[in-house]
Amino acid sequence: MDHHQAGHAAPVLNDAVPVRHPGRWISAIIIVGVLALMVQSVITNHNFRWDVVGTYILDVKVVQGVGWTLLLTVASMVIAIVLAILLAVMRQSDNPVLRYTSWVWVWFFRGTPVYTQLVFWGLIAVLYPKISAGVPFGPELFSVDTSTVITALVAAILGLGLNESAYLAEIFRAGLKSVDKGQTEAAEALGMGKGKIMWRIILPQAMRIIVPPTGNETIGMLKTTSLVLAVPFTLDLTFATNALANRIYLPVPLLIVAAIWYLVITSLLMVGQHYIEAYYGKGVDTNLAPAVINPAAAKAAAAVAPSAEAEPSLKMEFPEEEAK
Amino acid sequence: MTITTQKPLVRIEGLHKYFGPHHVLRGIDLTVNQGEVSVVIGPSGSGKSTMLRCVNLLETISAGRISVGDQLIGYREVNGRLHDLKVKEIAAQRREIGMVFQRFNLFPHKTALYNVMEAPVQVKGKSKSDAKKAALELLDRVGLADRANHYPAQLSGGQQQRVAIARALAMEPELMLFDEPTSALDPELVGDVLNVMKDLAKSGMTMIVVTHEIGFAREVGDRLTFMDGGVVVESGDPREIIANPQHARTKEFLSRVL
To answer: Would you state the pLDDT for residue A295?
Structure first.
């Protein structure tokens, strides 16, 4: 075969006439034209008040609002993720009480509006003025005013987190179910315990399925935090920009301020998601073709006693050090 | 072939298995001596894999008893009554029994090296450096020292199965179970896996091998068991059974696979 190819000149490549795609050109021209019109109107229409956008984009109240919105998003997602793992594992439990509890939790928190739940958490102090712990029908151990424990911030985080946990529980459940049963069997056959199988074998593989929709949910949560005025919690980005807009009677530029900040945070979250996905995709999604082998490790492995092989490489480094 | 002390390691007695209404195993008796290679053959659906999976409790035992060494698998017997073992106790029993699956079941998110290291570190509590040294030796033994840092997806089926064998051996089991280890492999990759298994047999490992490789049974098997319809039809010296099967069903099966 080799000499067959070597004996001839390089082949003349087929210079075929490609199929024309006029539709692509027409649609591209239309879209670019419409975009140009939109950009022009955004720039020339004075009602956008870009000067006001510029004034308020780094306003103290706005930047603080960004901080509170981020805190609400992160804190409620952390609560939601912890609860969701628990709920998803409970759902697979052999214990029917745990299974049904998980099911009812998801049914309730997914089945009622998040706005309603936030209002409810805001009113918890009306329902239960005091939180106390004690023996049922027995003595009370301690007691505190509910309003000092469940502040507006806590109520907002609880409301958002518990609601989100129901959605995430379903995502986690789907992720856990997507891992082949053979993985559990292989780990069991090695004598691994239930907890280790879940944390070291199943969950890392399930994360590949779990991360993209969870990223979606996190971005959704970022914007759902704008509902916390239902509690009422009044420091988040949407409330802060609305308050400013009402003060200066210019709603549009402050909506733009809020939108810009939401876009910036979303973009940052997307970057984070990319790296998390890459981490959990290793061994599966990563480019697997040219495996980078550590030559030293391969050498050490080839020798039956790796420690004996490690020594010469150490010696190699000494002359260099002496030269310095 | 191998020098077998006549000390039984595995005793399967009157094993029955139901899947719902399906009576899959109908009273299996099988003894495997220390250091023996016991090969189990039979048509698909004969229950041979189910029997093997009962030995390390990947399937529950409906009736009968299995013991490995002096341990009753899955139960504790108190005053003649069987009590289920706790999950932790079952895990402890499984540590003594290595298993190789038809579909390899390597952990795809870990490299070959970390697949082999996982159980010694996490289950036995070995130090990482000790486990790594032992794992590299095992990978070398199955001819894959240069693939230590590859992920399963970067390995051929035959290589994956050899890593899976190394992974099972890393727990230093007293018994190895093979569930059709070459059935999912391309024909040209079967030989490498069988060679590893032959070496293992020569080293004195007690093995139960469910397979369709009659050549392997003839060459390294100390005992051949033919199963059909959930019962043992015939069991004895592999070379005798293959050359001169006594039962019509054995004859018919062998004529189709040979």
So the answer is: 45
CA distances from A167 to A104, A114, A181, A206 (A): 13, 12, 24, 16
Taking only the tens place, the pLDDT of each residue in B134-155 is 999 999 999 999 999 999 999 9
Angle between helices B128-141 and B112-122 (to 10 degrees): 130
- What end-to-end distance do the CA atoms of chain A give, in Å? 54
Where chain A has pLDDT below 50, the residues are 1-2, 289-324
Task: Please compute the mean of the pLDDT values over residues B8-26 and round it to a whole number.
Answer: 96
A322 vs B159 pLDDT, higher one: B159
Query: Which residues of A fall within a CB distance of 8 Å from B107?
Result: 183, 186-187, 201, 205
Give the pair of three-digit tokens for residue A301.
Answer: 């492995």
pLDDT tens digits, B65-121: 999 999 999 999 999 899 999 999 999 999 999 999 999 999 999 999 999 999 999
- A196 CB neighbours in chain B (<8 A) are 122-123
B152 to A283: CB separation less than 8 angstroms, yes or no = yes
